[in-house]
């Protein structure tokens, strides 16, 4: 998708489809209070074209509610699409992000390849500034993605050209900068999604390493991709314990962003779970839904996508990403329940369940990031089904050993619009993973599984300020929504990028 920014009057934009926003301005409550849908533009021709349908009562400007008008009078556009934000008082920057995705996803299956999206007019919404421009661009990219690369009959071809129309009286340099950021972040989120969408046979650990290296080369990041020998050299016994059961060699992917003039300050370590297929290993999973375990590298993909954005946005802080990529397979060489492994940190781990493999690869990833000088850690992983039980598909789980680190991440969420819910850590949970055989064991029993998994990682993050993101329930969209397709979501890319930029 090509995107461009325009400050031209909306009525003059010659396009296949012009999307404008509407909101419900009704402030009264109760049964008498009918919705008052209002378009968020000062363009008189758009207001006139929309007037009849807004007055009809058929369209209420609910969140992502759409209505299409053909051949709107006095507009150069062939079609006018009105996209709702819901109640005006409740509309946020993220509502604009979703609305832009909805507009794109409305156009795609109708064969429309070129369109325009009007940002809300100045002052109509808190989101009517540069933040809204960035969110709209991000949302449009998110909406443009479909997980259908392997279908011969692909119908939902991409939108080729999108014009984002900003108000003539906008702060132009600020809106231009925000627009550019939105393109970078949106494309990077989709890059992560394209990796997550690849099936296990097409994206082995080696190929994931190659894709990351190619991206790094294009974006000017430093990179290294190691395999078996290096795991042995670094004594990554936890990571290797998972990799030993696969015919595919593992990949230890290291990406580095080291800007001039950030020689002292913090070093951010991004650590991602990169299980390109999780069969469960010897503790094999049931076959129902096992196909979904191709997305068990979504945390790793989020880190690779975030690094792409960081390379282009150029924040003044050093960042490294470490992605531990391997398959988790049953095999004659696979590890067994009861085995004891020695992690890179020296801690011994009793393996109770070989399906709790994510925490094993991350243990060594976190240790390695600290060894390479990371002062702040963030990891992302499709780690536990317990997290999905706790939070469903509406929030991802988040954990931190440091309230200041959490506060910084929480602030990033307000910008990214992504939903993470902080869950507790605690000594009571840490108790459950103590082992009689070794230092710790890799599962903590039935209850609080997302938390006990986090406590396992905590053992390796130690005192370094650290955030753990459990994205198991959010990495794959199970039910398509108006603004996002079914398939990989790209969750965590935007929040991690924003977190990095806050340093
Ligand atoms: N990759 C899975 C977790 C997962 C489940 C991700 C569903 C996405 C959707 C992880 O490796 C796993 O198998 N976890 C086990 C841990 C258990 C054996 C302690 C789980 O959550 O069941
Ligand atoms: Mn597993
Ligand atoms: Zn897994």
Describe the structure.
The chain has 503 residues and is α/β, with parallel strands linked by helices. It has 2 domains: 2-168, Leucine Aminopeptidase, subunit E, domain 1 (3-Layer(aba) Sandwich), CATH 3.40.220.10; 190-501, 3-Layer(aba) Sandwich (Aminopeptidase). The protein contains 14 helices and 20 strands. The strands form 4 sheets. The chain has an 8-stranded mixed beta sheet with strand order 8-9-11-10-14-18-15-16, sandwiched between helices. Strands 1, 2, 3, 4, 5, 6 and 7 form a 7-stranded mixed beta sheet that branches. It has a 3-stranded mixed beta sheet with strand order 12-13-17. A hairpin with an 8-residue loop joins β4 (66-70) and β5 (79-87). α3 (130-144) runs parallel beside α4. 55% of the residues are buried. The chain binds ligand BES, manganese (II) ion and zinc ion. The site of ligand BES has 16 residues, from α10.
Instruction: Please state the structural category.
Output: alpha/beta
Q: How many strands, which pairing sense, and closed or not: the largest β-sheet?
A: 8 strands, mixed
Q: Which regions contain 5 or more consecutive residues with pLDDT less than 50?
A: none
Helix percent reads 25-40%
- Overall geometry comes to elongated
Q: In angstroms, what separates the terminal alpha carbons?
A: 31 Å
CATH class of the largest domain: Alpha Beta
What is the β-strand count?
20
- Determine the mean pLDDT: 97
Instruction: Give me the CATH architecture of the largest domain, please.
Output: 3-Layer(aba) Sandwich
Approximately what portion of the residues adopt beta-strand conformation? 15-25%
CATH topology (fold) name of the largest domain: Aminopeptidase
The CATH homologous superfamily of the largest domain corresponds to Zn peptidases
- How is the quaternary structure best described? single chain
